[in-house]
What does this fold into?
Amino acid sequence: IAGVFLLHFRAAGFLLPLIIIICVYEFATAIIAKKHAIRTVIGIFAIAVVSIVLILPALVPAMDFYVDRRSTQAESVDSGTSGGVAENDYFANYNANSLYAIGAKKWMIGITLAGIIVGLLRKNRVVVLVMLAWILALFGIGLLYKLNIPLLAFTNMTGMMIMLYLPIGVIVGVLAEDLWQLFSLEKHQNWGVGLQWVVLFLAVVAAIYRLGEVQTYRQFMTAADEKAMDWIENNTPKDSIFAVHTYYWLPDSPHGSDAGYFIPYYADRETTTSTMISSLGPGYEEVMTESEAVMSLYSTSPDIGALCKLGVDYLYDGAKNPFDGSQFNISAIQQAEGVQTIYQDGGVSIYKLCD
It folds into this structure.
């Protein structure tokens, strides 16, 4: 969980209830068995301490920023200057269809329910009960916003639905094991081998079907973009900032919509946008200000001066069109004073905005 936290603290928040449930179960088991209770407590405590120590460098600034932002929201709600968390579309905009689209398909939910029923009647009932408790905890986390307490509403139902694949996967795995034992397939080698081949075949078919669900429009990079970013790394100052195509995933969450999004990774230069969850970290205000300035580049009157004042030096227009269909008004941008085309190759264009 410490490693997950360093990657995505919300995902760690989803895993925390599972860890707590397992710890409570192990402690209760030790108490009932009257064996190793002290050792269990020490083990749980040691794991908690080590985990906290590992994430402390990231935890302190992250929590400080999170509490500061959420406290500001709470003050706005109390003063009546903004609606409560429960009225925010980010939290409240979901229904049963959202579960089927984001969390699990109807057929998968059906298999999961079958796994729960069979599992509760078999020897793996403890695993199933733990997964059920975790699922309930996830729903509880997703519904925390209804308390209208900004500090508690750290995620929405969408995040919870995405996380459901883990407990569902475990339950389906338990179902497969129970069915294997129920039909005593380990005693019938031919049947067992045959079933393994059937499962393998279905897995291949499912994988091919799954490939059709890959959102190729989110694959921004091309060989031409990679070449352009090599050029950027070798021909621009290290403190350069690039304006890139921007899409607002949420009103407070701008992110790149073409290959320019990956300039920090391929060329080690900053861009005007950031990660999809940049609102949860420091530097968020700068990202919002720069992204708002970039929006003028889509208009007939691009405000190059505003970008220059913010320290933005270059504009990157990738080989692929942005997935949202928006296009910079390049003709208007090129007519602005001081703008120079400094790179064009393979559909990629780079413009110097400021002297």
